[in-house]
Amino acid sequence: MTRAEFLRLAMASMVGLGLSGTGRAADAPAPAPAPPKPMGPMHTRPIPSSGEALPVIGVGTWQTFDAGPDEAERAPLRETLKVLFAAGGTVIDSSPMYGRSEAVAGELLSELKAHDRAFVATKVWTRGREEGISQMRKSMELLRDPRIELMQIHNLVDWRTHMKTLRGWKSEGLIRYLGITHYTASAFGELEAIMRAEPLDFVQFNYSLADRAAEQRLLPLAAERGIAVLVNQPFGGGGLLRSLSGTPLPGWASEIDCSSWPQILLKYVLGHPAVTCVIPGTAKPGHMMENCHAGTGIVPDGAMQKTMAAWWKNR
């Protein structure tokens, strides 16, 4: 996809999503409709353990990439990946627990000849050393890649056993980075303990405007320990977006180059400097376009993050 083709798709997608007419604060006059701005270059942030630059918006594959072989199901996923790459994104996050997602991602990356453009992250999600090794080798087979950029211990299942394996695999060059994950605040205590005790490249957890528990200890600790952060559920599993449907955008949205709620929610997460990349799941190219737009332009600073949090509290 050429840059010109990408911009034409961006304009068409934004119009289709109704992005040209932004919302407004209740006490502010309605602004004149303006055409959406062309997307600028996606921001990157360094992986602390290596210094490698990672684009700040990726894509998660839970449910969204668990598709059958029918072309009607595959076509939008293929276009979603094309949009991600054209916008400068690279991160694709999957797991053996996501049904056919690993296989579908691997097949599409092969079709697009895009393995060298992708930062593929997946997980080990089983108990026992041999079972873990078998599952990870199967993931490599499904993803059609003999080396995985990031292998994570999913939901901390048997993490001590798998951590030993991952350290060996990293030294052998089978993976480039290792990490741990969870998706609920109830696990934050255990995540914190492991982050303090173990040298990690990545940690992945939930964080959003409506779920800010990670701000208390995990995000500051990640910055202190030099651990890259992947954020899942920035939209609250979709419920957060549904709760905001029909709500006018606040007047400050334009100050951070936002013209939709998905962009606002993603930019809130990116406003924390410890966050390395956000991985909202989607199977729709237009939504992928909108998510990528959040990785460009003005990033909220600490003061704006407080404004956004106060708006949410008092809405």
UniProtKB/TrEMBL annotation:
Q: Which CDD domains did the record assign?
A: AKR_PA4992-like
Query: Which positions are tagged coiled coil?
Result: none
Q: Where is the signal peptide?
A: 1-25
Any matching Pfam family: Aldo_ket_red
Q: Does the keyword ATP-binding apply?
A: no
Q: Which UniProt keywords apply?
A: Signal
Query: Methyltransferase: is it a keyword of this entry?
Result: no
Query: Domain NADP-dependent oxidoreductase: where?
Result: 57-294
Q: Which InterPro entries match?
A: AKR2_Oxidoreductase, NAD(P)_OxRdtase_dom_sf, NADP_OxRdtase_dom
Identification of the protein by name: Aldo/keto reductase
Q: Which organism is it from?
A: Noviherbaspirillum galbum
